[in-house]
Structure formats: structure tokens, C-alpha cells
Design goal:
alpha/beta; 27% strand; 158 residues; 6 strands; single chain; six-stranded mixed β-sheet
């Protein structure tokens, strides 16, 4: 999913937002990681250490709770950046992915890095990441800090 589909997501709030199911044979696990490198300064905000938000999707064993698409605060920022009404931010945030939290990753798998462009946050690539993971890949989707719309760091950062 990309930023252009945000308008379609807002329109879908009447019936609820449903992401397409992955097409592969594996269930999908997911986790979000906040990475902080205290040895490097951020290029855009030199007073802060370099930090990234990364979403991981991977082939998993069944189980775990459904993972939300994004937080309401993140989706509000994304909708604002696209010039769309923000009153649907909670509806977008309420969407559930096909991924499961706390799902174990069995074995070794090849890694795919997804790096969105044009100001898109990592979670707009969720459908692609889930589908790749369902086919046996570990997928790391990164945010470009201070460049992507709808990216928030944890309040306890640094």
C-alpha cells in the first residue's frame, strides 16, 4: 500500500478497512523496533542521536494477537500530509493487519529491505511486507526519520 491509497482507505471506513490477505503458505509475524545509535548524531536534528523505526515481518508459527496498522497519531500525520480529512485517523488506526505479534520466527530466511520514498512511512508497505513474509522472507521496512510523514518515535527515546 502506498500514500495514494490513503484516500481509498478513508473511503473504506464506512465498512471497515481490511488489508488483503497474504498469498503465501506461511503465517506472518510482526514486530516494530526502535533503533538508537548514540555514537552518531542525527543529520536533520544534530542535538539527537541517530534513530530509526523499523517494522519487521517474517514467516512465523501460528498464534499471537493481530497487529494494528498504525497508531491514530501516526495515521493523523499521514492523512494531514496527503491533504485528507483527519477525522478518519482512528478508523485507519483501527485496521488490523494479517500479522501476529509475539509470533516466533522458526529457522533462517532471506532478508528483504523495504525503503519507502516520497515521504511515505514504513507502514504504508504493510501489504507488500506481509505478502513477502508469507512466502518465506524476513522483511525490514524502515522509516526515513524526519522525511516520512506519519513517523513517531517512542516518548522514551534517548
Amino acid at each position: 500500500m502506498n500514500l495514494l491509497t490513503a484516500a481509498a482507505m478513508v473511503a473504506a471506513t464506512v465498512t471497515g478497512i481490511h488489508l488483503p490477505a497474504p498469498t503465501g503458505p506461511y503465517p506472518v509475524g510482526s514486530s516494530t523496533v526502535h533503533l538508537v545509535d548514540h555514537s552518531r548524531r542525527d543529520l536533520w536534528v544534530p542535538a539527537n542521536p541517530r534513530e530509526l523505526m523499523v517494522s519487521l515481518h517474517y514467516p512465523a508459527v501460528p498464534g499471537g494477537q493481530p497487529v494494528p496498522y498504525a497508531t491514530a497519531a501516526e495515521t493523523k500525520l499521514l492523512l494531514q500530509a496527503q491533504g485528507l480529512p483527519t477525522d478518519a485517523a482512528q478508523d485507519v488506526a483501527d485496521a488490523r493487519t494479517n500479522s501476529r505479534a509475539q509470533a516466533p520466527l522458526p529457522g533462517r530466511h532471506p532478508l528483504v529491505l523495504l525503503s519507502p520514498g516520497l515521504g511515505a512511512p514504513r507502514y504504508t508497505m504493510t501489504t507488500l511486507a506481509e505478502d513477502l513474509a508469507s512466502h518465506g522472507y524476513v522483511v525490514a521496512s524502515i522509516d526515513h526519520a524526519y522525511e516520512s510523514a506519519g513517523t513517531l518515535f517512542p516518548a522514551t527515546a534517548c
